[in-house]
TrEMBL record:
Cell location: Cell membrane; Endomembrane system
Biological process annotations from GO: electron transport chain
The organism's place on the tree of life at top rank: Bacteria
Pfam families hit by this protein: Rnf-Nqr
UniProt entry tagged with the keyword Nucleotidyltransferase: no
Lineage of producing organism: Bacteria, Bacillati, Actinomycetota, Coriobacteriia, Eggerthellales
Keywords: Cell membrane, Electron transport, Membrane, Translocase, Transmembrane, Transmembrane helix, Transport
Subunit relationships: The complex is composed of six subunits: RnfA, RnfB, RnfC, RnfD, RnfE and RnfG.
The species this protein was found in: Enteroscipio rubneri
GO cellular component annotations of the record: endomembrane system; plasma membrane
Enzyme Commission no: 7.-.-.-
Recorded name of the encoding gene: rnfE
The name this protein goes by in its record: Ion-translocating oxidoreductase complex subunit E
Length: 231
């Protein structure tokens, strides 16, 4: 049961507690640039998730083979291979999505989310955990993109996934499909994610330990008393 719980923790942390876009502030270029339509958010999220999972698995498999001083070039090479595969598939079967995502699809190679998870997690954990971590981070990134693109598309264009949803008497606010609108929506989503995470921590009691004041933490340590007794 404990192992199952830890596996769930590895997966779920990327959805809210360590959401790449909303909590770690990673991958903000595509987050702001492509989220003018829900289809763009889904496409970018799915592509990034695929690369995260596949590159994490390969990096984990090779973690004992790759020399320490060559790990970053090796990680980038692995990531670039899967990004190239995604680009070929999208260009062949989803040309409209390929045109909408533009340069941001190949730039997944240098996306801090993918390279960061390869360096911080996949290179230090078994394959199963690396795959779950990549999938969880990808799902969290996709959720952030879809939420952001849904708000921007509905308010800025009056549509959802290309389908008109606003009544004729409501004029869309085009500022939401422009950069200022993107920053505004991102800020609101970040604030919302922080509030939800705070409520979750308060509910399970984990906030109490983290909120301990420095003097309380010092008193709880007891190292000073131990040193005095040894002296």
């Amino acid at each position: 049961m404990a192992k199952g719980k830890s596996m769930f923790t590895v997966f779920s942390k990327g959805i809210l507690a360590e959401n790449p876009a909303l909590r770690q502030m990673l991958g903000l270029c595509p987050t702001l640039a492509v989220t003018t339509a829900v289809t763009n958010g889904i496409g970018m999220g799915a592509a990034t998730t695929f690369v995260l999972v596949c590159s994490g698995v390969v990096v984990s498999l090779l973690r004992g083979v790759i020399p320490t001083n060559m790990r970053l070039p090796a990680f980038i090479t692995v990531i670039a291979g899967f990004v190239t595969l995604v680009m070929m598939i999208v260009e062949a079967y989803l040309p409209e999505l390929n045109a909408a995502l533009g340069i941001y699809l190949p730039l997944i190679v240098v996306n801090c989310i993918v390279l960061g998870r390869a360096e911080v997690f996949a290179s230090k954990h078994p394959v199963r955990e690396a795959a779950l971590d990549g999938f969880g981070m990808g799902v969290g990134f996709t959720v952030a993109l879809v939420l952001m693109s849904a708000v921007r598309e509905v308010l800025g264009a009056g549509t959802f996934a290309g389908i008109p949803v606003l009544p004729d008497f409501i004029e869309p606010m085009t500022v939401f499909v422009m950069p200022p609108g993107g920053f505004a929506v991102l800020g609101v989503l970040i604030a919302g994610s922080v509030a939800v995470e705070a409520l979750r921590r308060r509910a399970d009691g984990s906030e109490t330990k983290e909120a301990m004041l420095p003097e309380d933490a010092c008193a709880a340590c007891g190292m000073c008393d131990l040193k005095e007794r040894e002296a």
